[in-house]
Every structure is written in structure tokens, then in C-alpha cells.
Amino acid sequence: MLTKPDKNIVGNQKDKASGKREKFVQLAESRTVNAIKAIRVIGKLGNKSAYEFGDADVKKIIGALNREIEALKARLTSSGAKETVDFKL
């Protein structure tokens, strides 16, 4: 004999999923804004009158950021990726 699912259980699952979605949106927006601000701060290093740097330095910085973007893509599209932060000029 088939029974109908309990409406309370189904409702609780929807509420839980909705809460997870809200938390994701809140954190994603906040963290993305922080990441953009951090990238803009790094961009201020491009002031040649205040700092001395070469093309190799620029390539290392951009390479490190690109690697992290690729790792971010991997984490968001599949399961697991390394979470280490390693950067040196």
C-alpha cells in the first residue's frame, strides 16, 4: 500500500534547502565583494612611481591569481580541490 509523504517532512526539507540557499547567496556575495576589493588593492601596486617591479613579478602575481581562479572553478563545478595558498615572488 502506497502512502503519501508527510507534508511536514516535505515542508521541513524545503525550508532547510531554502535556508542553505540563502546562506550560500549571503556568503557568495560577501566573499566575492571581498575578493574583488583585494584584487583592486593588488592592482594599486601598478603605480610605477611608488613601486619598483618587473614583468616577471607581474607574471607571477597574475599566474598565482589565475591558478586560484581555476581552483575555484574546479571546486564549484565538481568535488574537491586543494585549498593551499602558496605565493612568493
Topology:
Blueprint: H1 7-43, H2 55-77
Roughly how much helix do the residues carry, as a percent range?
55-70%
β-strand number: 0
* Helical stretch tally: 2
Strand proportion: under 5%
Strand count, sense and barrel status of the largest sheet are:
none
What's the alpha carbon Rg, rounded to whole Å? Answer: 22 Å
What is the CA–CA distance across the termini? 69 Å
From the spread of the alpha carbons, the general shape counts as: elongated
Helix-strand pattern, N to C?
A: HH
Q: Flag low-confidence runs.
A: none
Whole-number tally of structural domains: 2
Overall average pLDDT: 87
Alpha-beta classification: mainly alpha
In short, what is this structure?
This protein is mainly α and 89 residues long.
